[in-house]
Amino acid sequence: MNKQLAHWPLLSAIVLLCLGALPAHAQDTADSEMMMMNPAGMKWVDGPPSMPKGLKLAVLYGDPGKDGPYVIRMKAPGGYKVPPHWHTQTENITVISGTLYLGGGDAMDMGAAHALKAGGFHNLPGGVHHYAFTKTATVVQIHGMGPLDIKYVNPQDDPSPKQ
C-alpha cells in the first residue's frame, strides 16, 4: 500500500469522531435559552459589604461570586469613592451613564484620575492596583470571569464587618 494512503483510515476515523461531536454541541447551544432584560426588569440591591455603602447592584448574567462568566450593573451616587484596591481576575468596565473616574496606584490621587464618560470602556487586568470615584450619579456595567473579588491595598479601607 502507498505510504500516503496508509494514513487515510486513521485520519478518516479522527474526522468522523470530530464530526460526530458537532451535532451534540450544536444541540446543547440550541437547547440553551436566550436571555434578554430591559432596565425595568433589573433587580437592584445594596452592594456587598466589601464595597463602601451607597452602591446599588444588579446581576444581569451569571453569578459574580462563582467561577464562570458574569455581567453586573452598578449604580454609584455622586461623591462615591472606592479606595485603592485590586481584583484577582480581569474585569471589563463600560460606563452606561455619568462619568467614572479611575486612577492607578496605591494612593487615591483624584487629580491624576482619568474620566471615563458614558459609552467609555476600560479593561482592567487582574492584580492591577487602582481606585475609582464619581462626582455625579454614575452607572457602570462590569463583566468578566468570576469569582469577582476586591482586595484593598490598605486593609483598613475594607468596609466589610470585622470578625
TrEMBL record:
InterPro entries: ChrR-like_cupin_dom (IPR025979), RmlC-like_jellyroll (IPR014710), RmlC_Cupin_sf (IPR011051). It comes from the Bacteria. Pfam families: Cupin_7. Residues 33-144 form the ChrR-like cupin domain. This is ChrR-like cupin domain-containing protein. It comes from Ralstonia insidiosa.
